[in-house]
Prior knowledge:
Blueprint: E1 2-6, H1 10-22, E2 27-32, H2 36-45, E3 51-52, H3 55-61, E4 65-68, H4 75-84, E5 88-91, H5 99-112, E6 116-118, H6 126-137, E7 143-151, H7 166-182, E8 185-197, E9 200-212, E10 217-223, E11 230-237, E12 240-244, H8 249-255, E13 276-280, E14 283-287, H9 295-307, H10 315-334, E15 338-339
Parallel strand pairs: 1-2, 1-4, 2-3, 4-5, 5-6, 7-10
Antiparallel strand pairs: 7-11, 8-9, 8-15, 9-10, 11-12, 12-13, 13-14
Helix pairs in contact: 4-5, 5-10, 7-10
Amino acid sequence: MRLGLVGYGTGGRYYHAPYIQAARGVELAGVVARSEARIAQIREELPGVPVYESLTALLDAGVDAVTITTPPETRRELALEAIGRGVHVIADKPVAPGAAAARELVAAAEDAGVLLSAFHNRRWDTDLATLKEVLAGGELGEIRRFDSAFNLDEPDTLEAGPTGGLLRDLGSHLVDQALHLFGPAESVTAYLDWVDLPEGRTDSGFFLNIVHRGGVHSHVSATKVNHLVSRELLALGSGGSYRSSQQDVQAQAVLAGRRPADDREGWGYEDPERWGVLSTAAGTRRVPSAKGDYTDYYERFAAAVERGEAQPVPLIEAADMLAVLDAARLSDAEGRTVRLSEQQ
C-alpha cells in the first residue's frame, strides 16, 4: 500500500512516520510539508522520501491512501479532497469538531467507496494492551468501574479555538479507550477546567463520568496545566482489582531516538518494575507487560485496503466517541448529566 503522510509536525514526525516505516506491506510514498524547517527535517530523517507542497500534488503523484495529521481545523477539507479522488484516508484525532461533522465524512467515504479510518492509536498502548489481557483472563469477574487518568505538564501545547481544547485532544483517546473496552455510553457527567489563552478560552483539563450501557462506570480525567505527570489505570470488578501506573512507553522510546523498525520483537514493553498489580482473593501479583505497538494499526489498515479485512478503527466509531465529547461539553455548560439519546 503506497501511503502519503500529510503533515510533519509532532504527530506526523513521532506518531506516524516511525510506524509507517515499520509496517509490513506499507510504503511511505511521500510527505506533504511547506515550511523549510519541516522539509529539512524530512530530508534528514526520511532520506529518499519525496516531499510535496500540497495534498493535490501528492495525489497527482499517485498513492493508495493518505494519513492526514494537519491541525484539526484543516482536516475535513483535506479528507474530502482525498475521498473525492478515490483515495483511502486515515484521519488523525479529532477527526472532526463534533459527531455530526464526523458522520458527514463517513457518508462521503461510503458514497465514494473508500475506507476512512480514525487514528485512535492508543487502543494499542502498552498499558491498555495489558489491561485487555487481564480482562480477558476473567479473574476480575464482572467489571464495575474503570478509572483512567492521563496528566501532562505541557501548558504550551494546549490548542485554543473552536476545534481546540484538551477534551478534544487527549480526551479523544481516553474516551475512545473506555468505549473500546466497555461498549457504548448511556450518559455522561462532565466537569471541564477552563483557562484564557491569547487565542481564546479553552479547556485545560477534564473529569468525565461515563455510564456505559452494560453498567460499567468509566471515570476519565486529564490535565496539562497543573505540573503533574502521571498515567493511571484502575479496573474494579466483583473478583478484585487491577491497578497500573505504566509509562507512555512507545512515545518515550520514539522521543529518545529509538524506532520500532529497529526492534519489532522487543518494541512496546514496560519495564518490570512498573508492571501493573492484580489483586484477588487468591493474593496479589504483578502482571507482565503485554506488547503495545502502533505499527499494528497501519498493518491492519493495509490489510483492509488490500484484502478487504476489517479496518482498525472505522470512522463511525470515532463519530460515536465524538458524541460523548459533545455530551460532555453540554454537561459542563449546563451542570447536569446528559444522556446520549439527547445527541441523536
